[in-house]
Amino acid sequence: MAYFLFRRTLGFVLTLLAVSLVVFAVMNVLPGDPALTILGMDASDDALAALRDQLGLNEPIVARYLSWVWNALQGDFGLSHSFRVPVAELIAERLPMTISLAVAGMLVTLVLALSLGITAAAQHRRAGDWGVMFLSQLGIAVPAFWLSILLVMLFAVKLRWLPPGGFAGWSDPVAAIRSLILPTVALALVQSAVLARVTRSSALEVMRQDFVRTARASGLSRRRVLWRHVLPNALVPIVTIVGMQFAALVTGTIVIENVFYLPGLGRLIFQSIANRDLPTVQALVMLFAAIVVTANFVVDLLYVVIDPRLKARA
Amino acid sequence: MRGLPANFLLGAVLVSVVVGIAALSLIWTPHDPQTMSISTKFAPPSMEHWLGTDQLGRDVVAQLMAAARNSMTVALVAVLLGGSIGVALGLLASALGGWVEDGVMRLADLGFAFPALLFAIMLAAVFGPSLTNAVMAISFINIPIFARVTRASANQIWTRDYVAAARAAGRGRFAISRDHILPNIAAAIIVQATIEFAVAILAEAALSYLGLGAQPPASSWGRMLSEAQTLMYFAPQLAIYPGLCIVTAVLGFGLLGDGLRDITDPRLVRAR
Amino acid sequence: MIELTNLSAHFGEAAALRDANLVIERGDRLGIVGESGSGKTLLALCLMGMAPDSARLTGRLSIDGQDMASATERDWQRLRSRRVAMVFQEPMAALNPLRRVGDTVMEPMLLHDGLTRRAARARALSLFEEVGIPDPDQRLRQFPHEMSGGQRQRVLIALALACNPMLLIADEPTTALDANVALRITDLLQRLAQEREMALIFISHDLAAVARATQDIVVMYAGDMVERGPTAEVLSAPVHPYTKGLLGARPDAAVAGRDANGKRRRLPTIPGSVPPLHGLPEGCRFAGRCPVELPQCATQRPVFTQTDVGRGAACHLLTEAHHD
Predict the structure, then answer these.
(1) A14: phi then psi, degrees, rounded to nearest 5
(2) What are the tens digits of pLDDT across the range A9-40?
(3) How confident is the model over A69-76, as a mean pLDDT?
(4) Which of A9, A102, A157, C275 is deepest in the core (most CB within 10 A)?
(5) Which CATH number fits domain B6-19+51-271: 1.20.210.10, 3.10.180.10, 1.10.3720.10, 3.30.310.50?
(6) Which residues of B fall within a CB distance of 8 Å from A164?
(7) What would the pLDDT profile of C136-179 be if each residue is shown by its tens digit?
């Protein structure tokens, strides 16, 4: 077991390292001259040279990489070119927003997808099943940003129940929650589609297994068999999918923040792209990629915790 | 026709419509999608402009058609490019096994850490946003997907008897991969490719919506939606058409892929 | 007491079970033998209310005097495990892999009998001892994958006994086990039935096991009950041609070695195979494979004829004999 943990953790760290390499390489090896980007085409050669020196661009590439990683581990992501404040500060400001959206989205997704999926499986070949299958197929095909626009048009423009976007701050909790309702719904609906299908097929697989028949023969009610025996066993492959869904969650959060003008990390990335603020973009991309990798790592561990058969093999 | 599953048929119909329109746009559109005419902006549907005009007086139908063409092209290139590299890597990993296989799968894991959006963001920050960057980004994420599917399927074929016979006869692994493995996994790859096509269409739309894909004046459903969002209060219909197109195209390819999978699934084939 | 009167199960037009008649009381040990497709498992499922939804049942099934024709799933849930219990064929995947076996066994007790956890655990412990699981205290906490096939089968038997049912149905309990273990399980089931004064239905195609464990036997073919009677009698002096064929086909029954011409004796088998449900012949379902061919066999379905108390068969040979 300890060996298994060690191997997995090692793999995790190595992957993170590789990710950082890729991010650094793409953003520092490929582009042109950042000094030129910042100062513009008319800057004098001296000014450019001075800025290059200041930004440490004359150091060898490996040294720059290592110092970036070293600093990042301590929470220093450099200075934002456009905002003129440490990137870490920018991130700290906007992190709560993104986390709130992501967590809320994930929770709603799980609740929706699991119950829909299990219900569909229980209603196999009947109306409920086809309904869920069709809706989920639709949900996968509908882009999150379009769904958001439709929701805004209905609830904000037509009915005026909810705000069309923006975020007033946490000081007014009711307003804050109201601002988050549509974004969370949009995020969750799209994500649930995939998860509901996976839940359904996983549950159907499990329902075919012998122990379900045994449970029924023991006089357990259909509902009990479904929720106490089928679902826990169906969760095993579902957990894997949820892990893979983190990439979609990250993408979804970034997109939704931009659709609804929410002041989170997703908006920040795009502002930084527009401002050619490479250090910020670099830090944010690294952060998001790290989240995806970490999520997969956690899922790997969770898998072993849930299924005693795997624990034995570990 | 009777034996084919419903999702395959429906998907085939939708796909034919979308691809047909995209192909048609190469030679004909009701109007030139770029022609602006401020005087006739926001025109309602009419015989002249079947779905009306947008905020710059451009014909909506023409734009949708041109966007369809772009969308299909991007998806095709991305899936072909990413797919071929991915399949090649997968075959290599499966044929050579050992540390090569481990290495390729590690690389694939690395690829999975980067959603297409993140990749496109990086490229956009560095090179500036463009359609080429979008295509690159979408191609990149297809590589690990195809590599994984190919390796998994190929691994199963390697254990089959006729492959063992070929190896015993002294056939090289490259020849076996080409003659035995590839034809047998072709079905799985095609199914995956169809599904990835749908994913690519969605990805291109999302990237264009965010401004990281097709740049003006090129048409894109995603960008049309982005523009329409600012005009929600004046012309809500402009936000509906492009979305419907995206859903139709993605749904079509998704159903087609599902249908293909049902048709080629060995378990179901035996039952029929 | 369980009573079946002309119970039939139809899937569309095809009758997978026809006119099954059975009376089961406490302490009865009945064997049901037949090939796969004979309807024996379907019969067992009917007794549990677990026949497939697509099966249309006719006839009468009454448990403790209650007519189950209008019984709902809820009604059946109350009976399962408490009055009728069943042990299925494949023990390998029959236990929830995520649960400790003790918890699985205790579940019906906690639900049906309303026992406290302590009482349930104590009963589970004694059940494990009863079914012959060594180290029961340890085993209660184990997961299914930590146990062998034979042990899992014992756990399943313990589970079936959890709420002291009146009837235990064992469907091919020994098929998936190796010979040694199979023998022990067979003896276990017989002992349990005797000690608990419980009715036992032992379904198998293993005639030797059935011979060990049962007092009476019913032979089934393609959904029909073709012969029944005390086990010893039926197995030593079968009346129905199918039963004779089954007995002749046993490897141990066949005479080994060579015959008068020096040719190796071949294992006598019943020619042909069981026809599919929709391809069954009119008249007697065994017609076409039967060594005896009376003119009425092809057109008339033989009526079950009693030759003695609790003894009889469904064959035209018997009615011919009576008419003589």
Answers:
(1) -60, -40
(2) 888 888 888 888 888 888 877 666 666 666 66
(3) 82
(4) A102
(5) 1.10.3720.10
(6) 232
(7) 999 999 999 889 888 899 999 999 999 889 999 999 888 878 88
Per-residue pLDDT tens for C101-130? 999 999 999 888 888 889 999 999 999 998
Helix, strand, coil percentages (3-state) for chain A, rounded to 5, are 80, 0, 20
Do chain A and chain B touch with ≥3 beta carbon pairs under 8 Å? yes
Scan residues 149-178 of A and list those with Cβ closer than 8 Å to B. Answer: 149-150, 152-153, 157, 164
d(CA C218, CA B192): 54
Give A264 or A42, the one with higher predicted confidence.
Answer: A264
Please check whether residue C79 touches A, CB under 8 A: yes
For residue C161, the domain's CATH number is: 3.40.50.300
Q: Which residue of B has its CA nearest to A13?
A: B110
Does position C201 have pLDDT exceeding 90, yes or no? Answer: yes
Beta-ladder partners of C107: none
Best mean pLDDT range from A262-271, B121-130, B263-272, C247-256: A262-271
CB C94 within 8 A of CB A210: yes
Q: Mean pLDDT over all residues of chain B?
A: 84
Is residue A27 less than 8 Å (CB to CB) from chain B?
Answer: yes
In this structure, what token pair is assigned to residue A291?
A: 């989240």
Contact B189, B150 (CB under 8 A): yes
Residue C150 lies in a domain: yes
pLDDT above 90 covers a percentage of chain A that reads 11
Residue B39, Cβ neighbours under 10 Å: how many? 7
Nearest-CA distance A213 → chain C (Å): 8
What pLDDT does residue A301 have?
82
Q: Which of A306, A219, A305 is closest to A1 using CA atoms?
A: A305
Query: Which chain A residue lies closest to B204 (C-alpha atoms)?
Result: A143
State how far the Cα of B100 lies from the Cα of A191, in Å rounded to an integer. Answer: 35
B108 within 8 A of B148, measured Cβ to Cβ:
yes
Residue C52 lies in a domain: yes
ipTM of the complex: 0.84
Q: In what order do the strands lie in the sheet containing C84-87?
A: C84-87, C167-171, C199-204, C29-33, C216-221, C224-230, C311-314, C304-308
What does residue C80 show for φ and ψ, rounded to 5 degrees?
-65, 135
CB < 8 Å to A273, chain B: 121, 124-125, 129, 212
Which residues of chain C lie closer than 8 angstroms to A306, CB-CB? 98
Q: Which of A26, A143, A288 sits opposite B206 (nearest CB)?
A: A143
How many domains does chain C contain in total?
A: 1
Residue A141 in contact with residue B243, Cβ under 8 Å?
no
Chains A and B form CB pairs within 8 A to the count of 130
Distances (CA, A) of C93 to A216, A309, C168: 14, 13, 20
Number of Cβ within 10 Å of residue B246's Cβ equals 28
SS3 C167: strand
Q: Which of B139-143, B205-209, C122-126, C314-318 has the lowest mean pLDDT?
A: C314-318
- What pTM was computed for the model? 0.74
Contact criterion met (CB < 8 Å) for C146 and A233: no
Interchain proximity A220–C97, CB inside 8 Å: no
Q: Which of A209, A214, A307 sits opposite C156 (nearest CB)?
A: A214
Chain A, 196-225: which have a CB under 8 Å from a chain B CB? none
Contact state of A219 with C50 under an 8 Å Cβ cutoff = no
* A14-18, A106-110, B110-114, range with the lowest pLDDT: B110-114
The residue segments making up the domain with residue C20 are 2-221
Q: DSSP labels for B191-237? A: HHHHHHHHHHHHHHHHHHHTTSSPPTTS--HHHHHHHHHHTTTT-TH
Q: Is residue C292 a part of any domain in this protein?
A: no
Is residue C237, in this structure, part of any structural domain at all?
Answer: no
pLDDT of res. C203: 92
